[in-house]
């Protein structure tokens, strides 16, 4: 027993709004090991459409930690979206189609132990070589906060990235 926060109706309405109700679901929100960066010669995507869709994905990420990192990745290209960025957004949407009933469950447990897990991807961005750090925190076994953020400077070692 517990509280389950789900935005299934929002996702289904979103799919209908963008004409993807009948799309084929994807197993993962992003292609494994896919690196997104700005290619100057790549085909430009519709910036207004990109910003509207990514904005809705940002809203969904508040109750869908499984897409939070990937939405953060595609949101880095809001001002210069290319077609391969839009393709990554469509992939996230296709993943949501297959997992529309997902969300966050808060359960009563017999403890209130706090746990925090942290990781860093050292120099993982092809375009600027900046590291991405992330964390999530559990209280009583329930997810209470999470974050993924690109660091502001280029680090020279994995130790420096994690610090």
Number of domains: 2
Most strands sheet = 3 strands, antiparallel
| Structural class assignment | alpha+beta
| Helical percentage | 25-40%
SSE run = EHHHHEEEEH
Per DSSP E runs of 2 or more residues, the count of β-strands stands at 5
Summed up, the helix count is 5
Query: Which word captures the global form?
Result: flat
Q: How are strands sequenced across the largest beta sheet?
A: 3-4-5
Estimate the mean pLDDT confidence.
88
Q: pLDDT below 50 for ≥5 consecutive residues: which ranges?
A: none
Distance N to C terminus:
39 Å
Radius of gyration (CA) equals 17 Å
Q: Mind sketching the topology for me?
A:
Elements: E1 2-6, H1 8-17, H2 47-60, H3 65-74, H4 83-98, E2 103-107, E3 114-121, E4 132-139, E5 142-150, H5 158-162
Antiparallel strand pairs: 1-2, 3-4, 4-5
Helix pairs in contact: 2-3, 3-4
What does this protein look like?
It is flat, with a radius of gyration of 17 Å. A hairpin with a 2-residue loop joins β4 and β5. The protein has 2 domains: about 1-105, no CATH class; about 110-160, no CATH class. It has 5 helices and 5 strands. The mean pLDDT is about 90. The chain starts with a strand and ends with a helix. The strands form 2 sheets. It has a 3-stranded antiparallel β-sheet with strand order 3-4-5. A two-stranded antiparallel ribbon has the order 1-2. α2 (about 45-60) packs antiparallel against α3 (about 65-75) and α3 packs antiparallel against α4. With about 160 residues, it is of the alpha+beta class.
Keywords:
alpha+beta; 3-stranded antiparallel beta sheet; 163 residues; 21% strand; 2 domains
